């Protein structure tokens, strides 16, 4: 994959036991009130969101509200959250973003882990978690990829 | 800004720029509103004491807030139903009082393979008043097709 903006440096793939781990599936009903609340929070007053014919591109972030610990692919793996930064976030849709009234079924998995060496020393461990969303007909309608980086030093730069 | 038609009447070619959007100065209320909407209640974005205890001068912006505003900006420009891919990469932190400028440019237009089908790639930046980049974004839009991923050939 050669998406624009991908880091050019050759990362070192980690073959650790976390890769491939999945969380339990969860349901995520796409509600008009939540769409309006989210659209307002991101200063988007487009009528498409007001009527719920489509959701804002990053709306699937609200899936947090429909998940508990069991839905996380991390399980009980200890994470150094104070040294963890959100590096990238990607949303891919197979058609228009989901509309109000859809009930999605999501499942997250740890897709990739790799390390890079920081410019000021220290190791950065990247983790890409993919959440796949299917509609009521079991068609994949979206894939959300979250890339976080855990630094071996404090996150603050 | 007005809602733009998603196709046809707007000429889109490589180099076409969106009219930049300049946000109001960021407030902690903006962060809280986004956190409530998304369910991410990391206290570093609203709790002054916890932000200071973690080594920050004060609460700082949730990255996904500007990412969300950028997503709305991109969708309003080229079509909320046509967007098939949106990616952001976080750079500098943003702080209360910051004024963010959202900008975008078309980087590629592909016609076909089906007749009338068109894919449009665009790149985006969200820049602080200092000139520092808060985040970068990339999006792909597909017109004349209702079932494409915008990622064929992956």
Overview of the structural elements:
By secondary structure, chain A is mostly beta strands. Chain A has one domain (18-151): Thiol Ester Dehydrase, Chain A, CATH 3.10.129.10. In chain A, 9% of the residues lie in helices and 35% in strands. The longest helix of chain A is centred in the N-terminal third of the chain and has 10 residues, at 32-41. The two termini of chain A are 30 Å apart. Mean pLDDT of chain A is 89; it is low at 1-8. By secondary structure, chain B is of the alpha+beta class. Chain B has a single domain, classed as Hotdog Thioesterase (Thiol Ester Dehydrase, Chain A, Roll). Helix content of chain B is 21%, strand content 27%. Chain B is built from three helices and five strands, in the order βαααββββ. The radius of gyration of chain B is 17 Å and the shape is elongated. Mean pLDDT of chain B is 89; it is low at 1-9 and 148-154. The interface between A and B is large, with 42 and 49 residues. β3 (84-93) of chain A pairs antiparallel with β2 (83-90) of chain B.
Summary, kept brief:
The complex is a heterodimer of chains A (about 160) and B (about 150). By secondary structure, chain A is mainly beta. Chain A has a single domain, classed as Hotdog Thioesterase (Thiol Ester Dehydrase, Chain A).
Question: Helices, strands, pairings?
Answer:
The complex is a heterodimer of chains A (157) and B (154).
Chain A: E1 12-13, E2 26-29, H1 32-41, H2 47-50, E3 84-93, E4 103-117, E5 123-134, E6 140-151
Antiparallel strand pairs in A: 1-4, 2-4, 3-6, 4-5, 5-6
Chain B: E1 21-22, H1 28-38, H2 48-53, H3 63-78, E2 83-90, E3 101-111, E4 118-127, E5 133-143
Antiparallel strand pairs in B: 1-3, 2-5, 3-4, 4-5
